[in-house]
Every structure is written in structure tokens, then in C-alpha cells.
């Protein structure tokens, strides 16, 4: 376990390559990653010539690697990394990038994550996600992670007295946020009746409980705060953890539970100070678990906490989250970071909530039953 703090390193630019459910012919992973990089640099007022650090997370970049993509983008860098930890990759890369800037190993670091996700690619990735999946899960009569998270959701419902209506209010609230996000794939209004009437995927999960895979990518620019040409999102703390339960827990507590206290302590803020939150939302149950693990006010009463989210009194996943905006493969975690950065910089047109403190969580890499990676980043409007 490790953490980093800084009052001087910030995210000074962010960009997103447009998401799509059906990528056009000729679309490539390198293409969408490169597009997100260029958009983030333009947002920061910088060019590729300014970049001396580069980090990448992608499931479908192969056979190329981070160095290949850097070369294709015309980057000559002194710091390079490749993260394969899915929904936790954004926080992991951010942690290392902050350290690199603090140490002087790089001055401008671009982090990008995303994938080409057509049906064929998605099916193959689900079958061969890792050795445990290929050898033990794929042979079972179940499709991907839906059945695993259906069981986890049922366990959570029984433990905390939650109903499908509770999850539905969360999903409906995120769709309402998505309506003001032109980058969200699904923006059509959704009400609780629609949610409850949706076809069952794996009981108790319905269609709107399952994240839609999309093609796309997200990127951020990390540098000393003094490099910012305007408002930026100062990185106060990043805390990470891996293999906290050895895949032997019940899945209802994530690695965020051990990260959050450290992150808030290093940042010098409390959960009650948080103004906007992006949590990794592949399923509503994981939103609930991470909100509880963050220790936000009301976390000891989950039905009450979800009522706050449902009424949007607690701004959670204000982009619509992955459940409405879409999950661009390994870019899912970076999507939440980009949204909080936009909120703190006053760039979330139509859905701006204001405030000073933003929190982003990462959850990723289901090794067998549960996500093995977790992280928490605390950022401040500057």
C-alpha cells in the first residue's frame, strides 16, 4: 500500500475522444487514444513537444505497447509507464505521475486510457480476461461478469435491506446527469418505472444495471500547478491498495475502504468536505459499496445515502457515469477523473455543481470473484 500527497502538482488539462457503441470502419485503439491525448493537450494549451512523460492503459492496444504509441504520437519522453489494471488504472497512473513530477523525472505527463470495444473484441476479452476467467469461469454457462455481480448485488441487498428501487433511483439520477453531458452515449430520460420494467439480465440485475461497452478514450495532463494557463485541479492525495481481501472476502467492502482514510488524512480534508464524487460504476452495487467505503456522511444508512444520490443532493457521477456515458474498456476509471477535473475547473456546462473538493475512486481487475485493485484520489479546485 502506498500514497502520495502534493499541493503543487495538478491536472491542468483533460480530454475525451467521443464515445460510440458502434465504431466506424477503420477505427483503431491507437486512433482513439491519440485523439484523447491531442484533446487533453489542447485543453491545457500545450503541444506534444511539451510532453516528457507518458502513461497508457488499454486492453486492446496490443500488439503495440506504450512506447509504440508514444512513437506514433511523435513523443520523445523521459518517463513512461503502462498500467493494465482496468478500472483502477487512472488512479494508479495518477499516483505515479504526481511522484514523477515531484521528483523532477518529468515536467508534463499525459495519461490516457481507452479501448476499441466492438462486440467481437468485447466477447473475446470477457472470455480471456485473465487465467482464472479462461480456466474456471468461461466454461460455465454464464456470460462475462454479470452473473458474478448479480450474486454480489443480491448479497448486498440482503445485508443492508436494499431493494431494486434503491438501485433504480441511483441509475435514474445518473441518467439525469447524462442528459447534460453531450459525450454520454445514453441521454434519453429514464424513470424508475422504465428501470424496473427493463429485461432481466441476471437476477436481480436488469438491463440498466449493466454497463454498456463503448469505444472511446480519456486523457489528462499532469504538471506543476505553475504550468496551468487557467484553472486547474490540484492533486491533494492519491492512495492505492491491491489484493486487500485475497479474493476471500464477500466483495461488499472494496479496497477503497483502506484507501479513503489515508487519502483524506494526507489531503487534510474530511469526507464531509467533498463536493463532487466520481466512483467506478460498472454496476450500481459497486457504486453503493464505494460510497460506503468512502465514509461519506450518511454512509452508515445506505438507503438514506441512496436517497441523497437519487435526489442529486449528493453529486455522484455527474457525467452520467459509465452506466449512461458508457465504459470505454480500460478508460472507465479515467472517465471519472476527467469528469471531476471538469467540475473543479468549471467546465461541466449544464451540469456544473460548483464546490472545492472532488474525489475519484478506482475499482478494477476481477481476479476471480472481486476487484483486486482500489484507489482514491482527492483533488481541489485551484
Automatic annotation (TrEMBL):
CDD domains: SCP-x_thiolase (cd00829). GO terms for molecular function: acyltransferase activity, transferring groups other than amino-acyl groups. InterPro entries: Thiolase (IPR002155), Thiolase-like (IPR016039), Thiolase_C_2 (IPR055140). Residues 240-370 form the Thiolase C-terminal domain. Transmembrane segments: none annotated. This is Thiolase family protein. The lineage of its organism: Bacteria, Bacillati, Actinomycetota, Actinomycetes, Propionibacteriales.
Amino acid at each position: 500500500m502506498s500514497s502520495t500527497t502534493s499541493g503543487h502538482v495538478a491536472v491542468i488539462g483533460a480530454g475525451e475522444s467521443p464515445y460510440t457503441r458502434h465504431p466506424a470502419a477503420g477505427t483503431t485503439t491507437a486512433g482513439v487514444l491519440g485523439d484523447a491525448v491531442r484533446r487533453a493537450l489542447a485543453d491545457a494549451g500545450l503541444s506534444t513537444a511539451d510532453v516528457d512523460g507518458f502513461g497508457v492503459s488499454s486492453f486492446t492496444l496490443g500488439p503495440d505497447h506504450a512506447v509504440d504509441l508514444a512513437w506514433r504520437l511523435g513523443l520523445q519522453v523521459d518517463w513512461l509507464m503502462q498500467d493494465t489494471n482496468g478500472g483502477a488504472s487512472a488512479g494508479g497512473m495518477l499516483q505515479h505521475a504526481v511522484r514523477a513530477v515531484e521528483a523532477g523525472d518529468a515536467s508534463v505527463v499525459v495519461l490516457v486510457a481507452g479501448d476499441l470495444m466492438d462486440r467481437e473484441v468485447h466477447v473475446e476479452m470477457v472470455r480471456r480476461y485473465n487465467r482464472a476467467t479462461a480456466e474456471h469461469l468461461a466454461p460455465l454457462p454464464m456470460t462475462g461478469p454479470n452473473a458474478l455481480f448479480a450474486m454480489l448485488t443480491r448479497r448486498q441487498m440482503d445485508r443492508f435491506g436494499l431493494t431494486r428501487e434503491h438501485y433504480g433511483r441511483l441509475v435514474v439520477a445518473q441518467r439525469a446527469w447524462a442528459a447534460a453531458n453531450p459525450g454520454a452515449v445514453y441521454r434519453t430520460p429514464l424513470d424508475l418505472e422504465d428501470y424496473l420494467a427493463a429485461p432481466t439480465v441476471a437476477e436481480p440485475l436488469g438491463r440498466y444495471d449493466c454497463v454498456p461497452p463503448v469505444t472511446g478514450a480519456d486523457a489528462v495532463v499532469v504538471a506543476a500547478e505553475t504550468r496551468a494557463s487557467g484553472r486547474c485541479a490540484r492533486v491533494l492525495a492519491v492512495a492505492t491498495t491491491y489484493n486487500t481481501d485475497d479474493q476471500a472476502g464477500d466483495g461488499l467492502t472494496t479496497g477503497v475502504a483502506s484507501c479513503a482514510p489515508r487519502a483524506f488524512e494526507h489531503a487534510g480534508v474530511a469526507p464531509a468536505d467533498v463536493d463532487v464524487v466520481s466512483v467506478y460504476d460498472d454496476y450500481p452495487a459497486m457504486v453503493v459499496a464505494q460510497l460506503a467505503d468512502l465514509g461519506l456522511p450518511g454512509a452508515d444508512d445506505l438507503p438514506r445515502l441512496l436517497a441523497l444520490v437519487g435526489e442529486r443532493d449528493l453529486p455522484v457521477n455527474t457525467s452520467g457515469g459509465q452506466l449512461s456515458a458508457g465504459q470505454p474498456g480500460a478508460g472507465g476509471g479515467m472517465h471519472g477523473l476527467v469528469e471531476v477535473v471538469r467540475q473543479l475547473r468549471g467546465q461541466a456546462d449544464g451540469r456544473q455543481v460548483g464546490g472545492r473538493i472532488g474525489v475519484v475512486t478506482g475499482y478494477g481487475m476481477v481476479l476471480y470473484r472481486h476487484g483486486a485493485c482500489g484507489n482514491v484520489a482527492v483533488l481541489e479546485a485551484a
